[in-house]
Design a protein that fits this description.
41% helix, 15 helices, globular, Aspartate Aminotransferase, domain 2, binds 4'-deoxy-4'-aminopyridoxal-5'-phosphate, alpha/beta
Length: 356
Amino acid sequence: MTMPRDVIRADVLSLTSYPVPNSVGFIKLDAMENPYTLPWPLQEQLGERLARVALNRYPLPRPSLLLDKLKYTMQVPDDCDILLGNGSDELINLIATACAKSGAKILAPVPSFVMYSISAVLAHVEFIGVPLNVDFTLDVAAMLEAITAYQPSVIYLSYPNNPTGTLFDDADIEQIVRTANRSLVVIDEAYQLFAQRTWMSRTNEFDNVVVMRTVSKLGLAGIRLGYLVGLPDWIREFDKVRPPYNINVLTQSTVDFMLDHLNVLEAQAAKSRAERERLAEAISLLSGAHVFPSSANFLLVRVSDADMVFEALLSAWILIKNMSKMHPLLGECVRITIGTPDENARLLTVLKSIQL
Ligand code: PMP
């Protein structure tokens, strides 16, 4: 009899699946989603649009009209190309696959987005994590030293950084980009709308920089679309490892529609930015809580007992993310996604009722 352990790679056998908790019935403040749905007239118009999509046909592998529209709307430099991914998660995997030469390394500051290291492990590429400073700014000296020592193929910079919310300094990034002249630097702008800062217009200034974005945090996490912007020489290579029909027809049609209504999502993001400031101030007034500065749609908060805070919120049907075991720098930290004003008020009521 054949058992999985006879067939599956030893490192895969020892992995655990990416944990996604059951959130039915909870106020969901764990995954950096936009808490607002589409307003009704748009839901109806989108429904009518999607009803006409040819579900019997494979999607266009490189939908040129949609790519042009995305390029125009997102102010992609003229001489750059776009690669679409089934979420930026898929793009991160494609990059690891394409760069997995023997002895290749992928480097990122830690703590940062976990998929950078997961994708490296799955592609048999060594992951080098360079600890951030204790205030979660980049340790530039350590980064430059690691770049010289390891000569990584790829460097990820989450801008702003998940899970800390930090917006790394542009001059620090530029120094890394210039030093890492034999690496590809991927600037991951998943939270761009909340930081309102971007490297997009500089993508063509360097031959080793690409910018990655996603529509997930904009309010479209369910349709799974990420995009990578870079000079054609890079995009052409990553395109070769992309599954041919990776972006389904419903996603393509939804994005096409939503690009005409981006102002609605941008207004929702503006509400989240205002709520972020309000919530950060309210939590920081609670004794025992330290709120780190955030340029994203979540707050990283240090408390005296993260497990207790997580459990107390869970029993009040509020789901946040306990980060305290993820990295030593995140001791007793929880990450709270900004919700609607009502959701944030309920969160605050529970936080006020416990000893932080
Ligand atoms: N990059 C960062 C920094 C993230 O935090 C996330 C999601 N948590 C992603 C990329 C992945 O986004 P998606 O796959 O939904 O596009």
